[in-house]
Amino acid sequence: MAPRDKYFRVSFAFGQKATDKILESEISPEIKKELEQAKKYAEGRGLQIIVKDDSILYDIEQLIDIKLNNEPMENTDLQLDNKLISYCGFYCGACSQFEKGQCLGCKGDNPKCAVGYKACKVRPCCIGKGISSCAECNEYSSVKDCKIYNPFMIRFGQFVTRTNRRKGIEMIKEKGENEFIKYMDVKKWVTIKTGKQ
């Protein structure tokens, strides 16, 4: 809720379950229409309501109740599958090639696996060691010391694009795969962006 001069602006984000409940409810048709037309983001559909008097308070109370009763604190529709994490710490779930079905990620034997990364040396290394990602490797205390993981061209590319896949591996080590997937899904990042939170 944001106070303005002579009115308040109330903002919501509703997931699909809450959106369905709102559309089935007795909330005003204007609000339902605005919600239906709202763009869908990772956190749900955004809705902003201008409140100039108390005539809309009943609808706002209903929206709050629906939000509290139908929205989990985290995205339970999110597929917590470690196949969404590449061997080197990319999050395939945010990759446009993965989303379009053009690539199946790097874990598997299908020809659609590792599309665009056929020359990757990390993938065969992890497969050979039988590990899910570099986060499970015990050969080095940090992947920055691994010449296979951290060649000059990768470091240069990350410098130019302001990304750091090593931070992904470090997050997986520290917080686990599920927390990494949740974080990257919210951010919609394939790899950690430096200088961003």
Radius of gyration: 22 Å
Mean pLDDT: 84
Number of strands: 4
Strand order of the largest sheet: 1-2-4-3
Low-confidence region ranges: none
Amino- and carboxy-terminal Cα gap: 23 Å
Q: Secondary-structure element sequence?
A: EEHHEEHHHHHH
> Which structural class do you get from the secondary structure elements?
alpha+beta
Please count the helical segments. 8
Instruction: Give the helix proportion (percent range).
Output: 25-40%
What is the makeup of the main sheet?
4 strands, antiparallel
Strand content: 5-15%
**Principal-axis shape:** elongated
Give a brief description.
With 197 residues, this protein is an alpha+beta fold.
Structural write-up:
By secondary structure, this protein is α+β, with helices and mostly antiparallel strands. Helix content is 39%, strand content 11%. It is built from 8 helices and 4 strands. It has a 4-stranded antiparallel beta sheet with strand order 1-2-4-3. A hairpin with a 2-residue loop joins strand 3 (40-41) and strand 4. Helix 1 (16-24) packs across helix 3 and helix 7 (165-175) crosses helix 8. It is elongated and about 65 Å long. The two termini are 23 Å apart.
Summarize this structure as a short list of keywords or feature phrases.
single chain; 197 residues; alpha+beta; 4-stranded antiparallel sheet; 8 helices
Strand-helix topology:
Blueprint: E1 2-4, E2 7-14, H1 16-24, H2 29-37, E3 40-41, E4 44-51, H3 57-70, H4 96-99, H5 122-129, H6 152-161, H7 165-175, H8 177-187
Antiparallel strand pairs: 1-2, 2-4, 3-4
Helix pairs in contact: 1-3, 7-8
